[in-house]
Amino acid sequence: MPADRRGSRRQFLASASSALALSMLFNRREARAVILDPKGDTMMTLTPYLLFDGTCLQAMQFYQSVFGGELKAIKVKDSPARNSMPPFQQEKTINAHLQNGALQISASDWLRPDRTPIRGNTVCLYLSGGAFQQLRATFEKLSEGAEVTDPLKEMFFGWYGALNDRFGVRWMFQANRQDG
C-alpha cells in the first residue's frame, strides 16, 4: 500500500474513536463473541461496529429489512452530546443498534469533520463490558507493536481507549465507570 494511503487510512482509523466515544453514552451489553475468564465469568463482549458518512440510519434500516429485529437509533440532537456538536452534525446518528436474536450490529455516523472516512475501511472491533482490569490487560497486550491512537483513560461515560494493532486492525475498548 502506498505511504500516502497508509497515512490516510491511519488518520481515518484514529478518528473513528470520536464517533465511538460519543456512542458509548448508549452502551448496551452487545454480544458477537463473549470472552470468558478462566472461571467462566463473562468479562467482555466483542461486537462489529460500523461507521457511515451521514447514512447510518438509512443503512441500519436497510439491514433491519434484511435481518429483521429491533433497531434503536439516536441522533446527535437527541443525545447528551448535542451541546458539544456543531449544528451540521445534529441530524447525524450518534448510535444505532440492531438486534435480532444473536445477530447484533452497532453503528454511528462519522462525527469527525477534520478527518475523512475511507470507503471500504469502516469496520472496527469493539470490546466492552466486564472488569476494567481485564479490559486494561487486553488493551496492553494488543498494544504491543500497535499504534495507540487513544490511550486507555477515564472519560465522562467510563473508560475508553483505541488502537490499531500491529496487523492494522482497529480495536476500540470501553468499560463502565464503576468497573474502573
The biggest beta sheet is recorded as: 9 strands, mixed
Mean pLDDT, all residues: 77
Could you say which structural class the secondary elements and strand pairing correspond to? alpha+beta
Q: CATH homologous superfamily name?
A: 2,3-Dihydroxybiphenyl 1,2-Dioxygenase, domain 1
Draw up the topology in text.
Layout: H1 3-23, E1 33-36, E2 42-52, H2 56-67, E3 70-75, E4 93-100, E5 103-109, E6 123-128, H3 132-142, E7 147-155, E8 158-164, E9 170-175
Parallel strand pairs: 2-5, 6-9
Antiparallel strand pairs: 1-2, 2-6, 3-4, 4-5, 7-8, 8-9
Give a verbal description of the structure:
- With 180 residues, the chain is of the alpha+beta class.
- Helix content is 24%, strand content 36%.
- It is built from 3 helices and 9 strands.
- Strands 1, 2, 3, 4, 5, 6, 7, 8 and 9 form a 9-stranded mixed sheet that branches.
- The radius of gyration is 16 Å and the shape is globular.
